[in-house]
Write a structure and sequence with these properties.
With 151 residues, this protein is of the alpha/beta class. It is built from four helices and eight strands; from the N terminus they run H-E-H-E-E-E-E-H-E-E-E-H. The strands form two sheets. It has a four-stranded mixed beta sheet with strand order 1-4-3-2, with helices on one face. The N terminus and C terminus are likely disordered.
């Protein structure tokens, strides 16, 4: 009887494996960035609309959007060795209102150089996160409302 159950269990598992393999999503899973301070970097990206996600191990933590349709996860890599270059990445993040987002970043003590650039198609703000990673905030025209310009 035990053999029958073992065989049946193995058959069910074998049948489930191809179905499980078909359900694995493909595409861009996330972007890794080097960080010096998880908490400070998490605070910065929280202002941009992300939330803290999974902590994979002591050296990798995730940031994600509340709505996965908004984009990929950002995986923060704590690199005290300096092997991973900080500031060598560039992220484009769409926000509802660029000037309001910039105001929240400034109020939280983050350095934001200059003012947003308002064009007929988009409101754009170039800045850097606490670790020097380049961020391009994108919003709709005329103060952040309307259609978002996509590259």
């Amino acid at each position: 009887m035990k053999r029958l159950f073992a065989f049946a269990g193995a058959a069910v598992l074998a049948a489930a494996l191809p179905a499980a393999a078909q359900q694995v999503p493909t595409g861009l899973h996330g972007i890794k960035i080097a960080v010096a301070d998880y908490e400070k970097t998490t605070q910065f990206y929280t202002i941009l609309g992300m939330t803290a996600g999974t902590s994979y191990n002591p050296h990798e933590r995730e940031l994600r959007w509340a709505d996965p349709a908004k984009g990929s996860v950002v995986i923060m890599v704590k690199d005290d060795s300096g092997r991973m270059a900080r500031g060598g990445n560039s992220l484009m993040i769409s926000v509802t209102d660029v000037p309001a987002t910039v105001a929240r970043l400034k109020a939280a003590g983050f350095a934001v150089p200059g003012e947003p650039n308002v064009t007929p198609r988009a409101t754009i703000m170039m800045l850097k996160d606490p670790d020097g990673n380049a961020i391009e905030l994108l919003g709709g025209p005329f103060g952040g409302t309307g259609d978002t310009h996509r590259h």
